[in-house]
Automatic annotation (TrEMBL):
Organism: Leptotrichia alba
UniProt KW keywords: Repeat, TPR repeat
Alphabetized Gene3D superfamilies for the sequence: Tetratricopeptide repeat domain
Matching InterPro entries: TPR-like_helical_dom_sf, TPR_rpt
Domain of life assignment: Bacteria
Name of the protein this chain belongs to: Tetratricopeptide repeat protein
Amino acid sequence: MNEKEMNIDETESKKERIGELLEKREEYANNGEIEKEIEVLRELRILFKSVFGVESEENIKILTELGNSLKYIGKFKEAIRLLARAENIIIKKYGEDSMAFVMCNANMAEVYRIMRNYDKVEEKYFKAIKTYKKNNFKNTYIFAGICNNLGLVYEENKCYQDSINWQKRALKELKDLRDRDSEIQSAIVLSNMVKPYVKLKEKELAEITMDETLGILKKEIGEYSTLYSNILNNWSNVYFEDKDYKKSLELLEKCEKICRIMLGTENKNYGDILKKIETVKKEVNKKKIEQYVWKNQIIKKVKN
């Protein structure tokens, strides 16, 4: 076997290994085993670079995937470094006026968001938006996602009206698509608007938004889904934080019913929901006692 044949054989062996690793990666991703997934991505990064080349689309993708995954285990510096490498290749290969550049900046923004480096978050997101608008790109899902994420950034910074404004912009982008995916995405965006409305004391708008969200989800994926129950659970947390324990309990009890049917009573997540219900019930009863005591005190004062 000559040198050329040996190189071909080695490349084929690496490609076979890539196929095996991609299957493992999917398995780990589906099971939520993030650290094992990252180990696979690290090996894939070496193989992709060797087989496809430094400036290949495949290498950009693996740098991006690994960078995005590392943020979930707190490896922020490494995540930014890998995404910056991807950005350099993108600029060289496609230029800054490209959708790949938009996506890369959006990915970096999300790492900075988890780091709570909000100046960098805005810088990266606004750079992505500027490039998107300048080139009149037409990828609605990507732009709506950026608007939604900016809304979450402003919510985290307690700028609730700004948060709502960006969520409304995301909804506007999704409005004309009218397919199943865009409807589900719209429901997610709407669900994110509930907390800002509650914080702004716009309780009626929060109720309307919840009804609209659940209406869409019932139609598109049904009540008995992880997304539906997670949204109810998140809203329950919002109302608990706002000390509206009665509403928090109402939402949790809906969540409990769905999880009981979906997961069964032996499931850990179902058990966690029951514990939360007990906690909220204690607060509801405590509030009732406080109101009763307060009422009696007022009656005594009036009589005296």
